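User: Assemble these into one structure.

Assistant: Restating your components, then the assembled model:
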Amino acid sequence: MLTKAIISGSGGQGVLSMGSTLATAAMLEGRYVTYLPSYGVEVRGGTANCAVAVSDEEIASPVASSPEVVIAMNQPSFVRFQGALQSGGLLCANSSLVHTETARSDIEILAVPTSELAEQLGSIKVANMIMLGALVRASSMISYDAMVENLAEILGKGRAKLLDLNKRALAVGHDYTKD
Amino acid sequence: MKTVYARPKLLKEADFHYCPGCGHGIINRLLMEVIEEMDLQGDAICVAPAGCGMLLYNYFEIDVIESAHGRGAAVATGIKRVRPQNLVFSYQGDGDLAAIGTAEGFHAANRGENITVIFVNNGVYGMTGGQMAPTTLLDQVTTTTPTGRDAGLAGHPVRICEVFSQLDGTSYLERVAVNRPAAVVKAKKAIKKAFQRQVDGAGFSLVEILSPCPVNWKMGTLEACEWIDEVMVAHFPLGVFKEVPC
Amino acid sequence: MRQLMSGNAALGEAAVLSGCTHYFGYPITPQNEITEYMARRMPGAGGVFIQSESEIAAINMVLGASAAGARTMTSSSGPGMSLKQEGISYLVADELPAVIVNMVRGGPGMGSIAGAQSDYFQATRGGGHGDYRTVVLAPASVQELTEVVPMAFDLADKYRSPVIILGDGILGQMMEPVDFDGLVRPPDYDKSWALTGAKGRPAQSIYSLIFDVKLQEEKNWKLQRKFRLIEQDEVRYETYLVDDAEMIVVAYGIGARIARGAIKRLRDEGKKVGMIRPITLWPFPMKALRELAKSVTDFFVFELSAGQMVEDVRLALEGEGHIHFYGRPGGVVPMPVELYRIISRHYYQAHADGDRKQP
């Protein structure tokens, strides 16, 4: 089973780290995975996106031109990538910033008010992890339990202090989606 | 009988390919004398240029590598970074250092690479037959400035020592000449000083040597030597341009 | 230990583990992470990193470091590779080992910063002036870099000649799990030819200028004999499902990955398609292709260029077989499913053609 996701937003929203967190979690789970950041001038132009592919067998192409999942953390990303989504695909929208009224009717929408939820946790910076928790719940890309279990390794030494906060953020996203 | 002068042992018993009256032969000899006197023959590595100096490995009894045109300072950088204990110097002409290889020379100087550049300035492209060099004087006739170098058309003669003296990475810069015996003695001292500074780890050093090219200047040998004093030095004054205490 | 790393970073690590002590480079997208990785990694590994003033300077620093006996590397892309060609020609002529990485981007001119395979000709035909070839290695995954990079340094030292690693922007930027546990550092070779100063031995020199035309010719023959030896001994390729194949895809690097995905779909439908993936683009697996042509009539070449490797396939097959071609000039990377549809069409056409030799 191969699932590809495009994770998109504006620079500073942590979309690239969301992608590498998802990819690292998948790797530690023993899955095949590729992570392809959008690079060059795009990165510096204020928007950012990356493609993550997770599979049970070798991945041919890391490019996601018609992904199963799109995460849009802001309105321009929603506009840009919803058209690429496969019919029946999952669109996770940060409803704090994205208006989904114009969404295609053949896709599934998961609206998560990540900014509000993050502020309740005390840090807007974990909005990306809240979305990741929601994504993992709503898709079958990786195992939520394994990700939480491996979170210290996934975040690495650099973010060790933030382990608890990130864990709570994942849980918030996960639980929000359950409801 | 007392020997007052002998061929340096490090200068191979080979005939120079240089034209009559050319300064390269003197400079080649000075380099080998200095290395012999400093007892550095086992440490010296020379980077030879493209241009009249390109056959140095036929004359020098030290390790020599050929460089592509203009790349001497970059090649010397690569060698020195592998073998910091060796004496590494590039031998470069005016086209080599002041035209096609300006970037490499400039940035090696700016990095303060602990190498020495021997810069032979004869104001003309010798090997290719007398075309304009970046150091060709205004109004000087060459095969590509048939009516004399016109600043409006071909710019101005480049003063390397003056330009490089503005770079914080340079440690020692001197301009000398080899057109008369006293000047040759001074040139030898400058080379020795530059090499000694490299041995002491002082950083980038460059000795610019005004050198006669009577054949391409269309002059007699003596006339060429006099022309250096009378005309060339006016634009390229001799002396030490920088000497950072070490 | 498996870790998630970009191709660029993994290449840098593999180089250090292969004994590379001197790296010189100039930033250009999409290979900047190699330069940045080396800037971080080299000091701790006891090596040297210099950000040069240009690609020209970088390749000449490589030449100097190699002449002094070091294992050395530079990396670049597109316009930067064009600038390096002079130096590569000198490395070949001077018989100096070095590894040069090209993370190919779209061209010509400034082109794009997206991945492409459009520098195949430049890499496999010499690229600079003079009559020469360089070994060209084409990795297809981040993990494969742990084999290809030491191989590059080994071949460079073994044959005293520059070796090119031809990746692409996607391989460079893409992160994949990689572990370096299996990486074997290539052995050290005798480098008594290196310039170390004439201490305890006669002076020696390294140069390529030979005025005497007879000696120049002999020097060229000597290089050519080396190239023939490399062609004979160093061909590397991988085959995939070729045993019963009626059509063989020829693809390398990122192209081969996409083709593999396409072939899986074709096989699911019972279409007998296999693949040969050259790992050395020079020397090209000529014999292997000719061998395959004994039982297969249809070859489908896929590359991210308008048609460069396809010429080598033609040369290899010497008129045998039918060559199908699909190329995209880089930047836009077709999905495996698109390639699957195209190969399918060619597969049906080949079957419909009654003149084909039956295996």
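Residues 181-199 of chain B form the longest helix (19 residues).
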